[in-house]
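Researcher: Next sequence.
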Amino acid sequence: MNNPLFCRLAGTVLCALFSSAALSDYNTVFIDASQGDSITNVRLGMGETPSGAEGEKVTSMFYLGYFSSDDLIKVDGVNQGSDTVEILTLGAGGFGYLNEPHKNGGAEFDFELSNTKFDQADYDRTAIGFKTQLFIPVAAGLQANIGFNLRPFFLSTDWDDQADLEVEYQAGIEYAFNWDIALYSHYRKVDIHTEDVTTSFAEDVVFGFRARF
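Model: Next structure:
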């Protein structure tokens, strides 16, 4: 991806991660929580944010996440009845904005160890995934958000013919009051892809907030 924002922030995140490994003060708490009609999503993390002037302040963090959905299960668009899906995650990565975020935006990049369960298909799968979000400035304080989370079969400890890929999508808008607090509304969807079939087990609009302090 030849994207200056992506490259600059990815480099900053990697530097911050290596720095935090050597000097981890754990002086930042990170919270990301959202709720919709059928989706609940919460992440709670701890990490380190460099001191100094605002801008280019990337938080290197570890976090625990919980995702729950009670929604219709759809196989290639055909309803299969409702079921409860739960995803537990342990993640590590970085979150932050570039200088002048109203002009340059920001991003989050994480690696996650996740466990996905739902009863209807006797599905219980543990995998390593990659999560990213991009924050694209629209106006002062207002940002567009796009993101995804990929969990491919070859990074799963128990992959079989149930899944080739788990993927979460999100897109929406958010208002950042400053570098540390934002309110958002996102459309979210979670799919499982096999060679011949796509199973959708969560689709909703959520409202939430993100904060670090």
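Model: The mean pLDDT is 80. The beta strands are 28-35, 39-48, 59-75, 78-97, 106-118, 123-139, 142-152, 165-176, 181-193, 198-212.
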